[in-house]
Fold this protein.
Amino acid sequence: MLNQKHKWLAVLMLIAISVFAAGCMNNNPNDNNDTNGTNGTNNVQQQGTRMQQIQNQPRRDNDNTGDRVEIADKAAEKIVRIKGVKQANVLITRRNAYVAAAVDADRMGANQGDITPELEKEIADKVRATDPSIQKVYVSTNPEFFDRVNQYVADVGQGKPISGFFQQFNEMIQRIFPNAR
């Protein structure tokens, strides 16, 4: 009888240790152990409203864009309905939106490459109307930014690999929107 009690006690101890060990295995808040072999790669996922998400590993919590970029087609559709806007694409990161736009000359501001404050506000309002969580909207007609964002949107739409885009995007944001923090 004593031997049988020891066996049950040993089995219970093994179960308790197994549960304890299994519970501690996922305690990795920084996702530093990438055991599935995807470290440094991009995953593109289709969402319900045709918003593509790009998750880039590893995380970089101290940059202004976060670790996700979404293509906001609905916001872009609303923006091109504005008089004088020929084309637009919108990328969303965390609570920021970056708009690459082509506009008519009469909607440009006093400085080359700038747009009128009224148009900038109108564009920002359209973006926030589609996603109320957006806090800051950055609008650019810079040809480099416009071309790069358009190429990115086209590549994602065609299912092409987008490796390296996230780093390029962060660098471009720092250069074109230096006050974006």
